[in-house]
Structure formats: C-alpha cells, structure tokens
UniProtKB/TrEMBL annotation:
Molecular function GO labels: UDP-N-acetylglucosamine 2-epimerase activity
Lineage, top ranks: Bacteria, Pseudomonadati, Pseudomonadota, Betaproteobacteria, Burkholderiales
Enzyme class: isomerase
The EC number(s) this enzyme carries: 5.1.3.14
Taxonomic source organism: Comamonas piscis
Short name of any one Pfam family annotated for the protein: Epimerase_2
Protein name: UDP-N-acetylglucosamine 2-epimerase (non-hydrolyzing)
Length: 380
C-alpha cells in the first residue's frame, strides 16, 4: 500500500477510507458513517466485511443498504482460526489497496485485526466508539483487552461520550486526537424508525424484554437469572416476558429447561435488527447483559436492568436510564418488582435523558475525518 510517500494532510482529490466490519453490531454502528461519507464530495468509503458472524450479517448489510466491496472467507470455527485467517487475508488485501485510513468500530476480533493491519502498513487507524473501559481484562472477555489494544495503535479516537474521552485522556491519549461524537447506534435507530416504521404498537404496559449471552454469565449465573425470570413471571402473570434465546447451547438448554413451561414467557429465536427495535419500542422493561441494548433502550425511553456487575457504559447508570443487578436471583427479582410496583421510580427512569446522543454522530465523524485528511479545505 503506497501511503507513506505522501504526508498526511497534503493529499487532494477523493480520499479512500477502508471500513472494516465483521459482526452485526459493527454493521449497525458503521452504517451511518458509511452513508455520511458516501454523501460527501471528498470521500469514498470502501467496505470490507470479515465474515466473523457468518451468514447472520448478510441480512444486516441488506437492511442498511450496504454492498461490501470486499468479503473475506471465514476460516475455521474457533476464534483463533478466524483471527489467523482474517489476518492473512487482510494482509493480502491491504498490500494491494490504497487508502488513507482504516476505520474500525468497537472491540471485536475483526476490529482488532483491521486495526493491526492498518498499523503494520503505517496507515492511520480511526477507532469508532473509542474509550469504553471496565479495566477488568476478563469482564468482558476478550472485548476489554481488544479495545485497549486498539486504543494503543489508533491515530484518531472517536469517543461516544465525554466519559469515554476522559478515560482516553487518563491513559495518555492527546486531547487533539480525540473527538466526542455521540454514539452512531442512535443514528441507526432513528434511521430504522423513519424508514421501517418502528413505533410502539401495543397498549400499556407492554412486555418485559430479556436477553442474555455474555460469557461471564455462563454456568451457574444462567441458572440464577432464569430462576429470577421464572419468579417474576409467576408474580406478574398478566405481563408477558419476551425472551429471544441465544443459539449457544450453554444458554439455550437452561433457558428452555427452566422457562419453557411458563405460559406468560415467550421464548423465541434470536431477533433480527428491525424486529429487536420493534421489541424495544413495545417493551415496558429490558433485562439484559447486552452492551448494545444498554445503548439502544434509552432511545425508546425503556428502563433497563443490566445483568452484570460492572459496565463499560457508566453513562447509562449516571443518566438514570439503567441499574446494575448482576446475576443474583434475589437482586433481580427485587429490582423488577420495585419498578413494576413503584410508578414514581418507573417514570423517573423513563424520563432520563439519552446519554448516547441525538442521532447526529455520523455527521460529526464525517466532519472530523475531513478535518484530519483534508485540513487545507477547512475555512480559516
């Protein structure tokens, strides 16, 4: 890749920007940036999809009207096999593709391999959703380690919140290399609402939406959480619990064994993106260990209980949108009961401001990239 001979900021013409995705969340959060860059006159985004989530990502790409320029071939079934295959194919592609930056999002193996490829070819790495931290390398695993390593080699850090920016500054990243943009997940949600008619379709109170998949909740925690959901379903028989069940047998088996016989618990296959947005819009409460749902629930003003002991998204707690309940059966039941029986507490969480932005994050990112790559085009 011939980018070393031309100093950054002195290029002219249309800039080529390589965007790397591999999972559904990456597609959701990069799609608004991709379309913002396509609408600009100065940039040409090149989309590379690694195939980390296999066939599950195809529907997401179609949903957001994205046709990848490059599709890597998934090698093996383990994360190690994927990492090796992805790294090898990225190396070949980067050696024959001229681009001015590599853009990655979040904390997946695809993001890490994309960032590493850019770094080895001395192409600046831009990290979307930078600065999320728990400082516990095992929670979440391996995401915490991956995003910290991406942070060490990125040239531009696009932080979704002021708190994420502060974490980066604390780690020694220069303020000039950080931009607070908001979270593009909100941009994607508002786009889905506008283009696919996502809005509340049920009368009050709506259902309780439950999801669970994180590695740190495997084992006895899955059993504890399912027992808590069963307690709640029995205590509130007029409420429906909607539980899209992860396909991993570690989750699927205990969920069906412990909850399958309850008449007001609806177990379903995993939902696609638009169906999940509709499920959020129709929910009265979300109980989840998902990082993505922590970001998405506030858009629909749905109170959120997080099945984790810590979160890299403390803003959702500080804003009052969510509470940590961990995997303790008694704690989960008490918190759900409190929200369902104390109207003031419930309304207070509903009224909390969205800490993740106003749906214009992609525009801010496009402008910051223009400033980085075409500073001569900026007004004095």
């Amino acid at each position: 890749m011939n980018t070393k001979s031309t100093p950054m900021g002195s290029r002219s013409g249309v800039a080529q920007l390589l965007m790397v995705s591999g999972t559904r969340p990456e597609i959701i959060k990069l799609a608004p940036v991709y379309h913002a860059l396509r609408r600009s006159s100065w940039a040409r985004p090149i989309w590379l999809h690694t195939g980390q989530h296999g066939d599950m990502a195809a529907q997401m790409l179609e949903c957001f009207h994205i046709r990848p320029d490059h599709m890597l071939r998934r090698v093996g079934s383990s994360l190690l096999d994927f990492a090796i295959g992805c790294r090898t194919q990225l190396e070949s592609l980067l050696a024959h593709t001229e681009c001015e930056v590599v853009i990655v999002q979040g904390d997946t193996e695809s993001a890490f391999q994309g960032a590493l490829g850019g770094f080895y070819h001395q192409v600046p790495v831009v990290h979307v959703e930078a600065g999320l931290r728990t400082y516990n390398l095992h929670r979440p695993f391996p995401e915490e380690a991956l995003r910290q390593m991406i942070g060490r080699i990125a040239s531009l850090h696009l932080a979704p919140t002021a708190g994420a920016a502060r974490a980066l500054i604390h780690e020694g990243v220069a303020a000039k290399d950080i931009a607070v943009t908001g979270n593009t997940v909100v941009d994607a949600q508002l786009w889905a609402c506008e283009h696919h008619g996502i809005q509340r379709q049920v009368q009050e109170p709506g259902h309780i939406l439950v999801t669970m998949h994180r590695r740190e909740n495997w084992g006895s925690d899955v059993e504890n959480i399912c027992a808590a959901i069963a307690d709640i379903a029995r205590e509130f028989p007029a409420l429906t619990v909607l539980f899209p069940v992860h396909l991993n047998p570690v989750i699927k088996e205990p969920v069906h064994r412990l909850l399958g016989g309850l008449v007001n618990v609806r177990l379903s296959l995993p939902l696609d993106y638009l169906s999940m947005q509709q499920a959020l819009a129709d929910a009265c409460l979300v109980v989840t260990d998902s990082g993505g749902l922590q970001e998405e629930a506030p858009t629909f003003k749905v109170p959120l209980l997080v099945l984790r002991d810590e979160t890299e998204r403390p803003e959702v707690l500080e804003a009052g949108c969510a509470k940590l309940v961990g995997a303790d059966r008694k704690s989960i039941v008490q918190c759900v009961r409190h929200l369902l029986t104390d109207d003031a507490a419930f309304r207070g969480m509903q009224a909390a401001a969205n800490p993740f932005g106003d749906g214009t994050a992609a525009y801010r990112i496009e402008r910051r990239l223009y400033q980085m790559l075409r500073p001569e085009g900026l007004p004095d």
